[in-house]
Amino acid sequence: MTRIAPANRGSTFMMALAGILLSAVKRMFVAIRNRRQVARLTDLDERTLKDIGLTRSEVMAALDQPLLRDPSMHLASVACVRRGRPAAGPTPGAVVSGGGAAKPRRSVETVAPSLCQPQS
Fold it and tell me: 58-90, pLDDT tens digit by residue?
């Protein structure tokens, strides 16, 4: 009968730790990228912001979030509230605009419903 050696617990722990760290770094880069994109909204005039359903104070409030918090999540929750559906709250590490390979851009209109509480 052949015995199979148990997995090395130390290497399993290190792999899990590496996965957690990689995930945190990815969330950080996504938050920074989205912060830059939201910051570009400050260049728009009031009329254009109104056309896309935002106010300057909402954009500034999103940018006032802590540095590594994704400001686009704040804007998505504002969109939920505006539609009369309170935000369900961002999931830790949630990505509003995809990263990595080129993906079609998603607007807050298509992303926010998944962040809003279901309609009753």
Answer: 999 999 999 888 999 999 888 888 877 766 654
Q: How many domains does the chain have?
A: 1
22 is written with which tokens?
A: 């990689």
Residue 58: partners with Cβ closer than 8 Å, 6 or more residues away: 75, 78
Sorted by sequence, the CB contacts under 8 Å of residue 77 that are 6+ apart come out as 87, 89, 90, 112, 115
Task: Give the position of tokens 């686009």.
Answer: 72
| Angle (CA) 112 58 55, round 5° | 100
Does residue 71 form part of some domain? yes
Q: Is the dihedral of CA 113, 114, 116, 120 positive or negative?
A: positive
Residue 51 within any structural domain of the chain: yes
Q: How many residues does the chain have?
A: 120
